[in-house]
Amino acid sequence: MIVITGASGQLGRLVIAELLKSVPASELVAAVRNPASVADLVAQGVEVRMADYNEPSTLTDAFAGADKVLLISSSEVGQRLPQHANVIDAAKRAGVGLLAYTSILRADTTPLPLGLEHKQTEQKLVESGIPHVILRNGWYSENYTASVPVALQFGAVMGCAGEGRISSAARADYAAAAAAVLLADDQAGRVYELAGDQSYSLSELASEIGAQSGQAVSYQNLPEAEYRQALVAAGLPEPIANLLAESDTGAAQGGLFDDGKQLSALIGRATTPIAESVRQVLAAG
Ligand SMILES: NC(=O)c1ccc[n+]([C@@H]2O[C@H](COP(=O)([O-])OP(=O)(O)OC[C@H]3O[C@@H](n4cnc5c(N)ncnc54)[C@H](OP(=O)(O)O)[C@@H]3O)[C@@H](O)[C@H]2O)c1
User: Fold this and answer.
1) Average pLDDT across the chain, whole number
2) pTM
3) How far is the CA of 77 from the centre of ligand 1 (A)?
4) Where do the domains of the chain lie?
5) Domain 2-137 falls in which CATH fold?
């Protein structure tokens, strides 16, 4: 039996969809803090268990009988280490056979401040003694393509990544990798550095959006503080604006580049090119 935490989220839903191609729904458990949010999974025969990263007893119950657990990292940045520690401790109490964790590309050396909680979680995993596998996910292409409508509105992609190259992949590619690892044998002890097959700079992304839309779109590189201010002015909460700006600075330092192609090797196909992700957003209107 495989338990997927964060199953109500975007990645979790894609992982379950991917697993359902190979295993019966009766072998999957969606662990979520709000069971009402996944009625569609119940309708497909997936068991749903209540699991809140902040409430250890819910986690122990959710992991009962699990052969494998996928810990999808929490979206509550700043709270993640204690939350993930609760999950790891509960997995140990439940005697889980394999714990897979979605980390960040090169968690041990990344210049992105976001990486610290992942690095600490990985350390906690090692110390726990639980057989585990680490999926160090690179950037989702969706982090950038979500801003395509804004780029078209202003004729500009804004950022502070300079000429840093970004080896992103579609969220669905990372979900396929998680499913592949959960379905494979002999994964304990493995650490995967997962990223897209190709890389691009934000100038190249702007050109791609311009070429596909037929509109003039350029890249406007800003100092980090100005980019942060622009994001806040556009309505983003300050912590999110801060996180995006810091991550772009990390990208400028090479933190989102990788050419190891471990992701495509794991999923047995090429990763989704950024041009395709842009095309999908434009087609959706
Ligand atoms: N690699 C990247 O580019 C990238 C980008 C963004 C995020 N991430 C990381 O990858 C994770 C998965 O991405 P995503 O796109 O699926 O994010 P998402 O759609 O925001 O999903 C986050 C999931 O975490 C769950 N969660 C948050 N706090 C929780 C708690 N206290 N107890 C139990 N569950 C909790 C959410 O549950 P609810 O549905 O109840 O809110 C949701 O299921 C994120 O959480 C974040 O750590 C990576």
Assistant:
1) 97
2) 0.98
3) 10
4) 2-137, 156-164+197-258+269-283
5) Rossmann fold (3.40.50)
Q: What strands lie across the sheet with 68-71, from one edge to the other?
A: 47-50, 28-32, 2-5, 68-71, 98-104, 132-137, 191-194
**Residue 161 has which token pair?**
């990544």
Three-class SS state of 30: strand
Per-residue model confidence (pLDDT) at position 184: 98
Partners of 5 in the β-ladder: 31
- Nearest residue to 7 (alpha-carbon basis) of 15, 61, 169: 15
3-state SS class at 87: helix
The correct answer on CATH 3.40.640.10 for the domain covering 156-164+197-258+269-283 is no
Please write the tens of the pLDDT for every residue from 111-123.
999 999 999 999 9
211 CA distance to ligand 1 centroid (A)? 33
Strand partners, 96: none
In a 10 Å sphere around its CB, with 0-12 CB exposed, 13-18 middle and 19+ buried, how is residue 25 labelled?
middle
User: Quick check: 89 and 121 in contact, CB under 8 A?
Assistant: no
Instruction: Take residue 78 and report the two structure tokens written for it.
Output: 């700043």
**Candidate from 75, 81, 272 with most ligand 1 atoms within 8 A of CB, to mutate:** 75
Radius of gyration of the chain (CA): 19
The finding on whether 55 has its CB within 6 A of some atom of ligand 1 is: no
pLDDT digits (tens, 9 = 90+) for 38-63: 999 999 999 999 999 999 999 999 99
Residue pair 181/174 in contact (Cβ under 8 Å)? The answer is no
H helices within 95-130, ranges in order?
115-128
Residue 126 has pLDDT above 90, yes or no: yes
Out of 49, 72, 143, mutate this one to test ligand 1's pocket (max ligand atoms within 8 Å of CB): namely 72
Residue 58 contacts residue 86 (beta carbons within 8 Å): no
